[in-house]
Amino acid sequence: MRILIADDHALFRDSLKSLLEARSHTVVAEAKNGREAIEMTRRFKPDVVLMDLSMPEVDGLTAIKLLCAELPEIKVVVLTASDDDANLFEAVKSGAQGYLLKNLESREFFTLLEGVRRGEPALTPSLARKLMNEFARPRESAENPDALTDRERDVLELLVQGVTSNRRLAQKLGVSENTVKFHVRNILDKLHLHNRAQVVSFALRNRLVDSRPG
């Protein structure tokens, strides 16, 4: 596999690169922060990005959201020291293919990494159980419009007005299509919806906007 390593610790990157190359994987690039991870992923188009979460400039979760929206064919796997449940849930909701802890045994790490090639999630049994419990738990309110930012509300209003293509949304807002994709994915995640039609229906049903113009 062609792999990109994103981690702000040079010694860890060097060690991981040696391990990967010893198993016949190719490390196409190394990034020391989230901004570099985004730029290098766009440039090198790796099969897998191994992404740390705590990095300067742009954190790992933000980079995951953007990359999974922009380049869904590239698999992003979190490789972190953080066993915080909130980070696990947010990473998976943002599109990460897996969540691995840095204290993992190398044999288990490579077994899970090989599964990623086949489209399997890279999760240890304990983290998989946490996810199952979290997503099986009933929620009092799955839809939270108050969580939307002002820019996300601008996108929502345009969607209700019938401006649904990324190109037209980008023109209306004066931003790139990739930025539009990022905002739309955030709206879907925050409202726990699956597509733009559901977003429009939810917005009208809950009077988040006045009405759809004729």
Summarize the structure in words.
With 214 residues, the chain is of the alpha/beta class. It has two domains: 2-136, Rossmann fold; 145-205, Winged helix-like DNA-binding domain superfamily/Winged helix DNA-binding domain (Arc Repressor Mutant, subunit A, Orthogonal Bundle). 52% of the residues lie in helices and 13% in strands. The chain has ten helices and six strands, in the order E-H-E-H-E-H-E-H-E-H-E-H-H-H-H-H. A six-stranded parallel beta sheet has the order 2-1-3-4-5-6, with helices on both faces. Strand 3 (48-51), helix 3 and strand 4 form a beta-alpha-beta unit.
- The CATH superfamily of the largest domain is known as Response regulator
The percentage of residues in β strands lies in 5-15%
Side by side, the strands of the main sheet go 2-1-3-4-5-6
Integer-rounded radius of gyration:
19 Å
Q: How far is it from the N-terminal to the C-terminal residue, by CA?
A: 51 Å
Q: Report the structural category.
A: alpha/beta
Q: How helix-rich are the residues, as a percent range?
A: 40-55%
Shape: globular
Q: Can you summarize the main beta sheet?
A: 6 strands, parallel
What are the segments in which pLDDT stays under 50 over at least 5 consecutive residues? Answer: none
Per CATH, what is the topology of the largest domain? Rossmann fold
Total number of helical segments? 10
Q: How many independent structural domains?
A: 2
- Would you count the extended β strands for me? 6
Sequence of secondary-structure elements = EHEHEHEHEHEHHHHH
